[in-house]
TrEMBL record:
Keyword flag Hydrolase: yes
CC terms in the record's Gene Ontology section: membrane
Pfam families: Abhydrolase_1 (PF00561)
GO molecular function, one term: hydrolase activity
Name the record gives this protein: Alpha/Beta hydrolase protein
Classification via InterPro entries: AB_hydrolase_1, AB_hydrolase_fold, AB_hydrolase_sf, Epox_hydrolase-like
Signal peptide residues on this chain, from the entry's feature table: 1-16
UniProt entry keywords in alphabetical sequence: Hydrolase, Signal
AB hydrolase-1 domain boundaries: 52-290
Domain of life: Eukaryota
Classification of source organism: Eukaryota, Fungi, Dikarya, Ascomycota, Pezizomycotina
Length: 303
């Protein structure tokens, strides 16, 4: 028994020494927003590595970035993921489900964790959160060195008065009626909606797990947030983004790839890539083709 205890103690000391030499620390914690809500976050990778922050899309959780967190923390980056209010393991209040509040939450996270020289990687609505933050907090933009925007468009809902050209540029793949119908029937519509965001290659086990992550948020709050974010138009923000940006889309995404590409044309100097069908270019390409996704993001940051 003493031998086993001694062996375990020695092993623990070796592991701690190795971690100390590498400077690698995993941290799980919470930050408190300016309106009193606790947001759950996780940090992995070397303590002094270049900072990366991953922002999920609507109803998704920080755990869904694990293929990126594992890769980039192993590559020497300091990776932060977090659950937005109402999502995952964060608190779910009965207020604040609008993008301006989510941008304020993001700013609270950045300042309390003191993230500098930061690459922000946003997916879907996570891009919109980053756009709202950039728009609202010009005094702290200096914290960000790079943006990666994965598969979001200027506007999800088409204005009936837009020309065909405007609709093609801005996205607008939902009508106002579709938006309200989906929000009113969120419980029944969630599973088919999430399924439409992936290729048919997604395994049943992966789908069920991702769906379970989505269901950590109540349908009522998800509907409120969906209605708000769908009605926004980000055109005036794009030309004012002044840090290197990479815009990624997918041929098989639920939104038009051409509209994602148009976003890139509006951000000064932005790079763009559309994942093909052969590359599993779905709305969730970072999940279905993490190797290609991660290498492209890493090349962009380090080039």
């Amino acid at each position: 028994m003493r031998f086993l205890t001694l062996l375990l103690t020695c092993a623990s000391q070796v592991l701690c020494a190795s971690a100390t030499r590498a400077g690698t620390v995993g941290t799980v914690g919470t930050v408190k927003t300016s309106d009193g809500i606790r947001l759950h976050y996780n940090q992995t990778g070397p303590r002094h590595g270049q900072n990366m922050l991953f922002i999920t899309g609507w109803r998704q959780t920080a755990l869904e970035w694990h293929k990126q967190a594992d890769y980039f923390s192993s590559a020497g980056f300091r990776v932060t993921t977090y659950d937005m209010r109402g999502h995952g393991d964060s608190e779910e209040p009965d207020f604040g489900y609008r993008l301006s509040r989510f941008a304020a939450d993001l700013n609270d996270l950045l300042t309390q964790l003191d993230l500098e020289d930061l690459t922000i990687v946003g997916h879907s609505m996570g891009c919109s959160v980053a756009w709202a933050w950039w728009d609202q907090y010009p005094e702290v933009r200096k914290r960000v060195s790079h943006f990666v925007f994965a598969d979001d468009v200027a506007s999800l809902v088409a204005n009936p008065h837009w020309t065909p050209a405007e609709k093609a540029q801005l996205g607008g793949f939902l009508t106002p009626a579709m938006m309200y119908d989906l929000a009113a029937d969120m419980t029944n519509q969630l599973a088919p909606l999430i399924e439409s965001m992936f290729t048919p290659n997604l395994s049943t086990s992966d789908f069920e797990w991702i769906l379970s992550q989505n269901r950590k948020m109540t349908d009522a709050h998800a509907a409120t947030l969906f209605l708000h974010q769908s009605s926004l138009d980000w055109r005036d923000v794009f030309p004012r983004i002044t840090v290197p940006s990479l815009v990624l889309g997918g041929e098989l995404s639920i939104g038009p790839a051409s509209a994602v590409e148009w976003v890139a044309t509006q951000i000064p100097g932005a790079q763009h890539y559309t994942f093909t069908a052969a590359e599993k270019g779905s709305h969730f390409v970072f999940w279905e083709n993490p190797g290609r996704f991660n290498s492209m993001v890493e090349d962009f940051i380090t080039q």
